[in-house]
Design a protein that fits this description.
Helix content is 34%, strand content 25%. With 152 residues, the chain is of the alpha+beta class. It starts with a strand and ends in a 17-residue tail after the last strand.
Amino acid sequence: MIYRYNFYSSKESLKGIRTFVADTLLLFNLTEIITNQLVLATDEICANLIIHAHQTNENDPLELSIENKKNKIIFEITDKSDVPFDLKNYKQPDILEIVKQRKKGGVGLMLVNSVMDTFEIKKKENYSIWRLSKNIPVPQRITIQTDPSIVS
């Protein structure tokens, strides 16, 4: 099943995005840590699109979808911005240099890369799809062996 959330390019949309992602992930029986990581990574991409690609133009619509496929959760953000991001030319910043310069920001995509297993941008004719996925391990079944001599 695919869960969809439509929103506009406004900073006020971010709270709704976080709530949608967290509530949807509750359906997938994930740990709290994984859920929080996925909320944070998705929020980061949406915030970057809202702020940088759309300059918080509240008339610009975006769509977020979440799909649980077997052992993988796929997030797609559909963006109709006129300013597509070129992921191929993105250079991950030097974290030590950012700390040294006391620079705020600039580490969002690094965070997304550390949380997600795959991250890509598919460019279509008049829109882009930001696709993030996370592999989710299959829960192991625990088998408890008992010593038949102790069972009464």
